[in-house]
Amino acid sequence: MGAARMIRLAVVAALLALAASPLIAQETAPSPPPVAEPSPAPAPSPAPTPAPKAPFVAGYKNGFTLQSESGDFVLKVTGYAHADGRFASGDEAEAVTDQFLIRRARPIVQGTVAKYFDFYLNPDFGGGNTVLQDAYLDVRFTPKLRFRVGKMKTPFGIERLQSAQSMLFVERALPNNLVPNRDIGLQVHGELLRGVLGYQLAVLDGVADGGSVDTDNNDSKDLAGRLFVQPWRTKGASPLRGVGFGVAGTTGQATGLLRPYVSVSQVPIVAYGAKVTADGDRRRWSPQAWFFGGPFGLLAEYVHVRHDVQIVETGKPTAAATLENTAWSVNGSWLVTGEAATYGNVKPKSFFVPSAGTWGALQLVARFNRLDIDEETFRGGFADPARSVRRADAWGGGLNWIWNDNLKYVLDYERTTFRGGAAEGADRPAENAVQTRLQLSF
User: Fold this and answer.
1) In which band, very low, low, confident or very high, does the pLDDT at 36 lie, cut at 50, 70 and 90?
2) What is residue 241's DSSP assignment?
């Protein structure tokens, strides 16, 4: 009994030992090394922020402007109007009609197409008439070389090339009777040496003295050219920085009627006969200059015209002659309020705001000018000496009150005396012109 019990206890103990051995091994076995977790993938770099796109521009700056995002396309609407008063003191012959008038009313549309092509349209509704003053396309790949085609100012007279918004007097001086106005054709122009040298060369239909054209009356074409030099333009501190001078000329063959020459009151003072026409060469040349220094300005030019004319009358031999007419003018200005004088528009230091005690800019102006007519004009019967003057001498003064960038008031007086132009060889009575202007520009 005792031996059998002992055997059973030994068997049970052995079984328990066998059952517990896996647990003991599990508790005593070394832990496996930890498995490393994979590192997270690096975050992608943010995409670079694109450069901000230029906005489409619409607003006002010297005109109402629309501009594309790239700036390659621009549309600009500007313009100006002149409300004038024209009077003559002591006009006993009533040669001048005292009147108020709209001298100019010019809405201007200009802009750029495809970056390199500029256009300019300038109609005029002044005086109750509709005239297309300018209509041209400018191709500008570089300031040194540009091409212009269309109707434009002939590159000749220094005062004619100045904008009507910037004129010192209500009307231009006597030399502009001889200066061509607008013509149609092709022009090459540009500026060299950082603007020191400007040049213009044009092939044009050709116009009579003081005239404009929309169609040509012959196959011949005029050549026109102008060189203008500003030697000290790039010398910032030089007192001569505002000096400029040049020369211009035209040459061509002319036919057709001749325009009358007018006084500052726009009254004819030289009128060729009804049967007198241009017939042959027509040549013009003009030395010209300006000076702008601080508040002072000076503008001067001389014009010489040589043209062939004829009288054709039925039953009479044709009379022909070569006539040479000349004119000159000197214009001076002083900005009393200290602004810088310029060929363009004056920028007032302060605008006209009475409540703030500011009154704009005040400019005093003066000029002397003369027109001389060839004596052969009268000896050959091309003009009536009882109706046309041999010479006109004018002097005048005035003031320009520039309220702001958009409004200007002009008041001037000019006295013109004449040689000839009346019956029996007498002198035409002097003209005493008083003129006013309110200019609105935008």
Assistant:
1) very low
2) T
